[in-house]
Amino acid sequence: MTNPIYLALDFPTWCETKQFIDTYDLHGVPVKVGMELFYREGPKVIDKLKANNHSIFLDLKLHDIPNTVMRAMRNIAALDVDIVNVHALGGSEMIKWAKEGLLLGGTGKDTKLIAVTILTSISDQTMNEELRLNGSVNEIASHLANLSYESGADGVVCSVHETKRIKQVCGPSFLTVTPGIRLNQSDKNDQRRIATPLEARKQGSDILVIGRSITKAENPKKAYEQALEEWNRGYESGNC
Ligand SMILES: O=c1ccn([C@@H]2O[C@H](COP(=O)(O)O)[C@@H](O)[C@H]2O)c(=O)[nH]1
Predict the structure, then answer these.
(1) Is the CB of residue 197 below 6 angstroms from any atom belonging to ligand 1?
(2) Do 21 and 53 touch, CB atoms closer than 8 A?
(3) Which of 26, 59, 105, 170, by CA, is between 20 and 30 Å from 113?
(4) DSSP letter string over the chain?
(5) Where in the numbering of this chain does the Orotidine 5'-phosphate decarboxylase domain appear (predicted)?
(6) How far apart are CA 56 and CA 50, in angstroms?
């Protein structure tokens, strides 16, 4: 099976990104490019990573009126990356138009459109008391996943803790992409709904996104290999 661990390249510049990949010999691993790097370097960063054989998840989390998202997605489609995303809270019309934009601007590659349900930095308490969204994160994330599924998305971004329920609601082939992964549970940082790679595998995640547990590790190469080893252990021990 293909490597499901996307390394979050949350660096300020291409220069620092390249230095990190070169130093720790992480050439060719799947990567996630987010707002920090993309807003600095623009589309050329995608070409540079492609030249280095990385699968790319472009994490720009579009959230606007349907027409604006469709037109933006038409341009993003030309970048020919593997995964792109929107916020599910933009609603069903926005998700449908995002898919339309992706198809209109696409180069024939099967770019997956996924929708962020509830950010992994949000707790039940923040959702209920600050945002005044009623229900548990689990309930709302699975509702938003179902909405995304019915609107033509290929999957969602959620935490490991919602994966099982989302698979039950949307079916096994609906992708669950899970950030909030920690190799050491004590390093939560700004994340609230975290899990280990082993738990992610047991709960049925398809793709893991890992940033700081690898980039800030003493030995990032070893940390990446540890994540892969845990993931594979989850499979070998028949836990899935
Ligand atoms: O709900 C979400 C959606 C996206 N992310 C992104 O994933 C990485 C996680 O980084 P860590 O350092 O492993 O916490 C980061 O780029 C986020 O923008 C997310 O964490 N949660």
Answers:
(1) no
(2) no
(3) 26
(4) ----EEEE---SSHHHHHHHHHHTT-TT--EEE-HHHHHHHTTHHHHHHHHTT--EEEEEEE-S-HHHHHHHHHHHHTT--SEEEEEGGG-HHHHHHHHHHHHHH--S--PEEEEE-S-TT--HHIIIIIS---S-HHHHHHHHHHHHHHTT-SEEE--HHHHHHHHHHH-TTSEEEE--B-SSTT--TT-SS-B-HHHHHHHT-SEEEE-HHHHTSSSHHHHHHHHHHHHHHHHHTT--
(5) 4-227
(6) 8
**What is the Å distance from ligand 1's center to 88 Cα?**
16
As for the ipTM of the complex, it is 0.99
The question of whether 110 is a catalytic residue gets the answer no
109 — pLDDT class (breaks 50, 70, 90): confident
Annotated binding site for substrate: 10, 32, 59-68, 120, 182, 191, 211-212
Number of independent structural domains in the chain: 1
Query: Does any ligand 1 atom lie closer than 6 A to the CB of residue 83?
Result: no
64 is catalytic: yes
* Catalytic-labelled residue, pool 18, 64, 96, 221: 64
129 CA distance to ligand 1 middle (Å): 23
Distance CA 5, CA 32 (A): 10
pTM of the entire predicted model: 0.96
What is the per-residue pLDDT for 186? 75
Q: pLDDT tens for residues 27-47? A: 999 999 999 999 999 999 999
